[in-house]
């Protein structure tokens, strides 16, 4: 099921980059182990990836070397203090990262600073008001009651409205909102393997409709923006 979620997420990112010319250098903020960079390179983009974790960057370099992927630079850097000149990129991707940054508005300001006027920004984050968000809230309260520590020290999911407001506040004009991944929350992970397979097959059939019509309630939300003057 995690594989399905990753596949859908990467497909959404690529669909929102459809207006970006091939050969463009894309900055991936919070690239982790370069999990999305391989897909970006396969779609004929050049990439620069940054992540706060040296171990993740090293893992990403090994992964890219094994895949013989070039035109990629990976470096360790904080999302709130990126080592590039203002307006350095025509396209920036930030996927599954903002929810882990306590001062995430500073990261959003940095993304805007680095984006050229008219450039494209694609952001995804887990949805605080989706089905997953609901079950996550219950699990967190149960953990608090029994005194069990949260496995994610900082993991503040955003709603579509909250994410849109943050992006607009720094001069990013929202062009499109999508929701994605409509698996029914954490309980679906408890199903037997065959039931999981059937559930994924069912959800994949209705996903294209739901991502437009019920985008506020997906497991994750995606936003396509442009940098305005």
Task: Describe this structure as you would to a colleague.
- By secondary structure, this protein is of the alpha/beta class.
- The protein has a single domain (2-227), classed as Vaccinia Virus protein VP39 (Rossmann fold).
- It has 7 helices and 7 strands.
- Strands 3-2-1-4-5-7-6 form a 7-stranded mixed β-sheet, sandwiched between helices.
Strand composition percent: 15-25%
Spans of at least 5 consecutive residues with low confidence: none
Estimate percent helicity: 40-55%
> Please, what is the oligomeric state?
single chain
Q: What string, H for helix and E for strand, traces the elements in order?
A: HEHEHEEHEHHEHE
- How far the N terminus sits from the C terminus, by CA atoms, comes to 41 Å
What count of helical segments does DSSP give?
A: 7
CATH topology: Rossmann fold
Tell me the number of structural domains.
1
TL;DR?
This protein is of the alpha/beta class and 229 residues long. It has helices at 2-16, 37-42, 54-66, 104-114, 131-146, 160-169, 193-213; strands at residues 25-29, 46-51, 72-76, 89-95, 115-126, 172-180, 220-227. Strand 1, helix 2 and strand 2 (46-51) form a beta-alpha-beta unit.
């Amino acid at each position: 099921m995690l594989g399905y979620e990753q596949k859908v997420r990467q497909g959404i990112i690529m669909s929102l980059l459809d207006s970006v010319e091939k050969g463009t250098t894309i900055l991936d903020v919070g690239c982790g182990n370069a999990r999305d960079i391989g897909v970006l390179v396969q779609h004929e983009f050049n990439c620069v990836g940054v992540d706060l974790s040296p171990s993740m960057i090293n893992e990403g370099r090994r992964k890219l070397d094994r895949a013989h992927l070039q035109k990629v630079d990976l470096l360790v850097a904080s999302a709130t203090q990126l080592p590039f000149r203002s307006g350095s990129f025509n396209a920036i991707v930030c996927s599954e990262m903002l929810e882990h940054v306590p001062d995430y508005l500073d990261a959003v300001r940095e993304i805007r600073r680095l984006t050229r006027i008219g450039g494209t920004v694609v952001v995804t984050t887990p949805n605080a008001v989706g089905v997953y968000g609901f079950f996550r809230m219950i699990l967190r309260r149960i953990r608090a009651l029994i005194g069990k520590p949260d496995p994610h020290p900082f993991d503040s999911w955003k709603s579509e409205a909250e994410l849109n407001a943050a992006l607009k506040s720094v001069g990013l004009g929202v062009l499109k909102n999508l929701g994605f991944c409509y698996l029914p929350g954490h309980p679906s992970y408890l199903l037997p393997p065959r039931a999981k397979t059937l559930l994924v097959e069912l959800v994949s059939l209705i996903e294209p409709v739901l991502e437009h019509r019920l985008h506020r309630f997906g497991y994750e939300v995606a936003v396509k923006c442009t940098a305005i003057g």
